[in-house]
Specification:
The chain has 396 residues and is α+β, with helices and mostly antiparallel strands. It has 2 domains: 197 residues, no CATH class; 193 residues, Nucleotide cyclase, GGDEF domain (Alpha-Beta Plaits, 2-Layer Sandwich), CATH 3.30.70.1230. The protein contains 14 helices and 8 strands. Strands 1, 2, 3, 4, 5, 6, 7 and 8 form an 8-stranded mixed sheet that branches.
């Protein structure tokens, strides 16, 4: 049934939030209409065919019509305003027709639905205006005790008690249910937003951004940077369709993501066919070099296996690793990104460029950190663009 209601309210182009608001006001309106029918039947049993009996039906007719009008006009606020106006003023008329707050069992408790609906679906300013109107209705009812009957109908004590239970109990339940549903949905949407943020930023950085609205750049003295790219990428993509290229890159990078996450390595970014990650931030990790080398070995093995299966429809990878100090922080205001800078990063890129397909090329600083744990082959000193002679090692 809920899916049918969603289909009735949702239109092409609606955001998740707008679709939720439309569904919520529809359910509130339908619930109040159902209560209106029940109240009309109850008043008929107690008062017969007096005006009081027909006022809830008036609410049902107006709000029910507004449901279809708002659907036809593609404007859910028609229903919002109809709901607010009718729930406030029809309940006031019912109270005045019965003879006051006590006689009606405080039927204007339902009128509080109006300001709450305004608060959820309209602006804070408008909700304050409707709340002031609600208070005005209560003051008028309590002070002036208006009556739209020459003769107030008799209401027994048992009927008054029933009215109080139904009006205060059910009205407050409807308000609580609507508020709880709204709160749960907002919490769910916040969780989705937080998860999206965590896909962009490390958890500690995301928390700092939410708490302070900004992230201070930080220097990390001991980290290890992983840099990869695909050899002969341009030649390979020339034989692939655009869709196949993106699909294959996504498949490879998704596998890299899974591997680095198991070693508690932070993925920093991808640039075209290049993939960069770092270990040792934002929380220090004494095993940063070992973790990156082990992750790199798994990445290299994955790509070798992938190439054996796919041939020229996939890529061959080169990997460079360097350890040292870097600066990390957020750049930009729109589509911001967490990034790292420093000579350590530049050297990792040069090591990758001087690697070979399927090989892991590491620097002297990384070698010094893992030489007792990982087997390596000394490549000697090799000229690196912009860096001069660099001591390099292949992980074996």
């Amino acid at each position: 049934m809920l899916e049918n209601l969603k289909g009735f309210t949702k239109e092409d182009g609606d955001s998740t939030e707008l679709a939720f608001r439309k569904l919520m006001i529809l359910i509130i309106a339908l619930t109040c209409c159902l209560c209106g029918l029940c109240w009309s039947a109850l008043y008929f049993v107690i008062y017969g065919t007096q005006l009081t009996t027909f006022l809830p039906l008036l609410f049902v007719i107006i709000v029910g019509s507004a449901i279809f009008i708002s659907h036809f006009l593609c404007n859910y606020k028609v229903l919002v305003y109809a709901q607010i106006i009718c729930i406030m003023w029809v309940t006031a008329l019912i109270q005045w027709s019965i003879g006051g707050i006590d006689q009606s069992g405080y039927v204007t408790a339902w009128a509080l639905v109006g300001p709450i609906v305004a608060l959820i679906f309209l602006s804070l300013r408008e909700s304050i205006i409707w709340m002031a109107m609600f208070v005005l209705i209560i003051v008028i009812s309590a002070v002036f005790k208006p009556s739209i009957h020459d003769h107030i109908p008799y209401t027994s004590e048992h009927a008054k008690s029933l009215f109080y239970i139904m009006n205060i109990g059910i009205a407050s339940s409807v308000l609580f249910a609507a508020s709880a549903w709204f709160a749960v949905t907002i919490k769910k949407e916040k969780s989705i937003t937080d998860n999206l943020l965590l896909n962009i930023l490390p958890e500690e950085v995301a928390e700092e951004l939410k708490a302070n609205g900004k992230v201070e750049p930080k220097y990390f003295e001991n980290v290890t940077v992983l840099f990869t790219d695909f050899k002969d990428f341009t030649k390979t993509v020339a034989i692939l369709s655009a869709k196949d290229m993106v699909t294959e890159i996504n498949h490879c990078f998704s596998a890299f993501d899974e591997i680095v996450s198991r070693y508690h390595i932070e993925k920093i970014k991808t640039i075209g066919d290049a993939y960069m990650a770092v270990s040792g931030l934002p929380m220090p990790d004494a095993k940063h070099a070992k973790n990156v080398v082990n992750a790199a070995k798994e990445i290299a093995a994955f790509m070798v296996d992938r190439y054996a299966k796919m041939g020229d429809k996939t890529f061959q990878i080169r990997i460079g690793i360097n350890s040292g100090g870097i600066v990390a922080g957020i750049v930009g205001v729109k589509k911001f990104a967490y990034d790292i800078w420093g000579d350590t990063v530049n050297t990792a890129a040069r090591l990758e460029q001087n690697s070979e397909a399927g090989r892991i090329n590491i620097s002297q600083t990384t070698y010094d950190l893992v030489k007792d744990k990982v087997s390596c082959t000394d490549r000697g000193e090799i000229e690196a663009k912009g860096k001069g002679q660099l001591k390099m090692y292949y992980v074996t």
